Amino acid sequence: MADPFRVAVLASGGGSNLQALLDACGAGSPARIVLVLSNNPKAGALTRAERAGVPYAVIPDPADGAVLTRRLTDAHADLVVLAGYLKLVPAETVAAFEGRMINVHPGLLPAFGGPGMYGARVHRAVLESGATESGATVHLVSAEYDRGETIAQRRVPVLPGDTPDTLAVRVLAVEHQLLPEVVLAAAVARKVAPLPK
Length: 197
Ligand code: GRF
Known about the structure:
Elements: E1 5-10, H1 16-24, E2 31-38, H2 44-52, E3 56-58, H3 65-74, E4 79-82, H4 91-96, E5 101-105, H5 120-129, E6 133-140, E7 150-157, H6 164-191
Helix pairs in contact: 1-2, 1-6, 5-6
Bound molecules: 5-O-phosphono-beta-D-ribofuranosylamine.
5-O-phosphono-beta-D-ribofuranosylamine binds at residues 11, 13-18, 83-84, 104-106, 118-119, 172, 175.
């Protein structure tokens, strides 16, 4: 694919969302994962990058916006994807990638989001609220946690007897569908001329 859409991924954990992106952005795809960064040297996401032959690095100080921004601009990233990244992105880096940085959240924002709301805490809050559905949200990243404009959502039912773990599995499955769909749509949109107003 001539000049593919270059995607950098930030991840802190196991990287199943990264793996969904790696699987969706293979040969022939309009998008290519060009860099994986993690604040966690033991992140499974780094192992997945290595297996896929994608350059990866640990960012020892996630609060250092200058280093993070330089890593991403040196990689000529067209899009930055937070895929299970648990650190706040410094405002300098958010600004450098305004409108070109997205995050996947395991809940239906704006509900059940914000500082500290990640992983099982989200699913527990959903269950405690009595909500009958949950889902995944992909949104633009702004300087505050989970506050950027929503790009796409996919809903799942909350089922009787659900625990945070059983709900997490159901939500993660739609995260793995939604995030690659948004990334590939962004890649294609860049190649297709904007529709006349
Ligand atoms: C996912 O639930 C994601 O929504 C949240 O953290 C989890 C990451 O999982 N931000 P993985 O590392 O992609 O498997």
